[in-house]
User: Fold this.
Amino acid sequence: MNLISLLNGIAVAVFGMILSASFCDIDWNRKKRMLMTGSMAGLLLIQGIIYFCVETEMVRLLYPVITHLPLMIILYLFTRQQLWATGSVLTAYLCCQVRRWLALLVTAILGGDAVMQAITEAIITIPLLLLLMKYISPAVRSISYSTTWVQSQFCMIPTVYYIFDYATQIYTDLMLKGAPVVEEFMSFVCCIAYLIFILRSSEEKWIRSQLELTQDSLNLQIAQSVREIETLRESQEKTREYRHDMRHHMQYISCCIENEKLEHAQEYIQKICSEIEANKVSLFCENEAANLIFSAFAGRAKEYNVPIKIKAQIPKNIHVEERDLCVLLSNALENALHACQNLKEKGKSGSIEVTAFEKNKKLFLQFINSCDSDIVFVHGIPVTNQPDHGIGVHSICALVERYEGLYTFEVVEDKFVLRVSL
Assistant:
């Protein structure tokens, strides 16, 4: 029995150490494999010395100090992740219970004794280890890339079980005494963990739905911006055609004058001028996309009798993608125009000022518009409880953060000011 127990002890130690290492995301090379193998041999040697020089029970009592703690330190030196190195060892310890329970099941079915249980544990060690390393280890390693909060959640049950197991079975005999509070403790922990999982899943589902809603809104805004650009481009092409056909128009007008059809010539001139004016695209900057957006909103502001002043020096080629620039400008100008419309409905006047330029490969934008003084800010970002409002602000923030830029929102003397640098 002593020999079988010794072999089983070696098997479970190797099982736990290899599984702990497989849970860590380590870029294994020949040197690291040799170091890990040497470390495992050293830990087994320490266990052997204590086993033969002291007594078997002492090995169980000192196991956390002579095996688990050194293994955590070794894995930390490999990964430089203190929390995950600890969690890997504790998770591997929990997986050792799968090995033990399967052996207990086989022993119970066959009606065996402690010797059969020890032999069964030793036999199933390698197949179970290979199975866990192939199917479970990759999934566990992926969690090491998660936030500290997520890693802490993952390590909660292995940590609680580790403490519970040593406190009730190894250092004391509370489990053998059959105290109800002890027997039901792990069931309580599993229930709490399940409830936390439900809460977290519900929270993540809500966040995902909000992200999908924002993404749908962005897609709609992008589609709208693309349509506006295409419409304005068509308008620009028509203007070019009118300029190209100007010679023909002049010839027709000349014929009308020669035939003394002055009124007809005057009507024709007015008609041509109206068509050209209707399709005119103002030139605000060299960048075609920005110029078309500025022109479109300048036309809308004129239609609503909102004074707008645009001073833009955006070059033709910039580091910001065209569709992102369109979304940014459209959202900012849409919000500014909407604020001015609300003021006009209250009998107040409103205006918009836009400044845009590029310097040192950085795009700087400033939008100033008249506004009410009751704007609410949360963490420096304007918020509203009106339905279908506030999406434009979130779109601006998300876009600027994607470019690792900066944005500020503020109200200065009844003027709403948005500044963007990206």
In short: DSSP finds 15 helices and seven strands in the chain.
